[in-house]
Amino acid sequence: MIINQGDKEDQTNTFNKYAFACAIVASMVSIVSGYDTGVMSGAMLFIKEDLGISDTQQEVLAGILTLCALVGSLTAGRTSDYIGRRYTIFLASILFILGAGLMGYGPNYAILMVGRCVCGVGVGFALMIAPVYSAEISSASSRGFLTSLPELCIGIGILLGYISNYVLGKYLSLKLGWRLMLGIAALPSFVVAFCILTMPESPRWLVMQGQLGKAKKVLMQVSNTTQEAELRLKDIKIAAGLDENCNDETVKLPQKSHQGEGVWKELILRPTPSVRWMLIAAVGIHFFEHATGIEAVMLYSPRIFRKAGITGKEKLLLATIGVGLTKIVFLVIALFLLDKLGRRRLLQISTGGMIIGLTLLGLSLTVVDKSNGNVLWALILSIVATYAYVAFFNIGLGPITWVYSSEIFPLKLRAQGASIGVAVNRTMNAVVSMTFISIYKAITIGGSFFMFAGISVLAWLFFYFFLPETKGKALEEMEMVFTKKSSGKNVAIEMDPIQKV
């Protein structure tokens, strides 16, 4: 498939405020998703004391959210193809309301686990659909910025979770404090559910339903000129297998085309060479996002700081808030670099910095572990290395994972292709979060971060050799990016011409 109009989409580079507003609303659900992740790191300190749960139960409680998110992410692709991107986000909000209510009630460990599972399914829906929706309403010139907003909102949610831990844990009783920490997430979920109903559907999904008139109206709103909207609509129609000159308000498409049926066959069983390469890229970047240890730092940062020599719940939670602030600051910086420096360069800078940060963290924690008393320089180095690792992760690998996997797949395969990536992401998240305590007990906490540093080296090599640059390319051009033989720093792989989707 050859798209001749893609480069013209960027004739106007003026930022579209309506597209930005839509992406903000879609990304709001990620704040709740991030809050559910961040709040548990501190809440577990209080849950353990109140309910008397073991280390194994803590690992299960921490990791069950990501296991259930795996189920949610695998379901979300087909769901969003069937009911639309907008109502899939609405469904995620409803799941957050139910899950937060159950956790806030939390009379015992079993009910707490059920609520955590319900929230986990919601997280799986949110992680997959928010970036996909943002990618589908944005132009090529601003797609990196808009598609990374969900990751920024996750960071905001995590920070709010850390702050909630500190404030509620300090001023409320043990029994009420952690329950309010977990249950309060129901309130913003109500707001998100209401706001989502006011935003338009993805124009690309509308085209897949044959609703060309509605798709054109949305494109007129999220484009800066009528010419840009018409060019984008023409490219989308070609990608959907329609006549680019078709001006009907509605057209009838085969059921398999507009409801996402047969997609798994094209993705897994008989993919074209370019689609196979896209799938390898998406699965690889999602695998390495968590295999490099970010969940160990974000979820178990109080334990890390305690090992380093920081004592007292208040000091531990304050140090953890610093992690959340670092995440937010560098995610904001990443927003403005993604569409300027490009995905590949930022990934290489990010992963290189992560290798250094993890190595220094492993070194400092090993020194602390082998010393009889407190070693001030090692304590300081462990804090600085932790913050540096979080900073480098969030300036590149964190946001780019979601941008890249949401933009590379063809229109028909995008939702379910992205859901496979999220499923891998949630699997690795669960593996790290549920095994980290056991790993550091087996090979020491310093050794565990040396292990993550080694995996980060493999990640850098994978990104360098397997991920072509996608900056500035229209979504409908991605098949050409993964088909042609790339030159220079791009992937030196030549693939056969592919068929039209």
TrEMBL record:
Keywords: Membrane, Sugar transport, Symport, Transmembrane, Transmembrane helix, Transport. PANTHER family: POLYOL TRANSPORTER 3-RELATED, SOLUTE CARRIER FAMILY 2, FACILITATED GLUCOSE TRANSPORTER. This is Major facilitator superfamily (MFS) profile domain-containing protein. It is found in: Membrane. Residues 22-471 form the Major facilitator superfamily (MFS) profile domain. Belongs to the major facilitator superfamily. Sugar transporter (TC 2.A.1.1) family. The chain crosses the membrane at residues 18-35, 60-77, 89-107, 113-133, 145-164, 176-199, 316-337, 349-368, 375-397, 449-467. It is a multi-pass membrane protein. The keyword Transit peptide does not apply. One of its GO terms (cellular component) is membrane. GO terms for molecular function: carbohydrate transmembrane transporter activity; symporter activity.
